């Protein structure tokens, strides 16, 4: 490489905002519907949105009510080659449209049914194109599986950090040791055990982790959200995410009136569990009818939000930082490059230092003051926490609304119009390399999954009775495959 080319590479690597990110953000903003172009909107300013895989391992070995997988999902064989190949293609399109960096969920069925090497290779393929992958699981796997996924054949870590989201709630059936839980509290030892595996991973192999806790909420467990929040806040999860149930996916699992569970109803109970208000109006991903979230620092049980929508100085700082630094990438880059990048960013906007100091001092005040933070830090009781509620929509509305959108028709019916508005501002996309399209996850699950799984059943039929899948994994999965099919 010539000196000039080398210098250009270094300049690009340390440029505060990568030019491809700038292009992807501007495109994202331009394509947002007008109602979503609000001051608090983060899409198109600092984020392109979340991404997820589909049709790459549809099978699962637990049962949940509701379940967003289509009725045929368990009739498709898990096949590592298919997973790695298809994920690679899906991620390539996301890289092309959404730019060099985004969070992507490895999702579609139960990820721990993948052979650990296939799981690892898939994570590597996602990282290779700048995706920060999060493996979405029911959490019912052993430490051996985690090690076999995270460590290469030579026993050395394949990753510096891994992200997993574990789904725990009492609507799930078939977990080892809690086949039919009667309450959310009954699952606490399993929630703890999940985090312990990652603490051991760090202790023994130095691999960091980011852990999310997912819970589906229906009228049955709505009133337990408060207790779950309280209990899980004391555990080592970085994010707590709640999904009010929707009529989507497998209609054999629609057993309650999910409409009773709203974002507000869930958020109230999260606040009750956290023992305080959780301000969320300063930032928004996509449409507020789809998502609500807040990020803050938990200091010895007290949550200090990073941005408070009722504090004008916070809002002024937010706008300033978004316009100057929105789109800066901090993850997965060498420390030297990050340091130079930050120095270049600050040097180009030195006037942002006083507002930054002001914001940090307000966060410290919300957390109880500097002394309280130092005391808590000494006890290891300071951590970042994110609360999320994601509100999927019902297939009954998504299907017609999406089909009309494909034809460029704006719905007159208020419910369908709302659905179209939300789909238009979607922050959770799935990629279709065969058409070059990105599709909202609601449309994927409501319209495309059932069609896709018909094709996958032919492409990847279940193994004949008696054949066992190889690799370290949850024993139940092997049993199910040996039985030649799903448990339904
Ligand atoms: S349209 Fe559906 S998948 Fe997209 S953000 Fe809204 S609820 Fe989520």
From TrEMBL:
<feature type="region of interest" description="Disordered">
    <location>
        <begin position="466"/>
        <end position="488"/>
    </location>
</feature>
<protein>
    <recommendedName>
        <fullName>Radical SAM domain-containing protein</fullName>
    </recommendedName>
</protein>
<dbReference type="InterPro" id="IPR058240">
    <property type="entry name" value="rSAM_sf"/>
</dbReference>
<dbReference type="InterPro" id="IPR013785">
    <property type="entry name" value="Aldolase_TIM"/>
</dbReference>
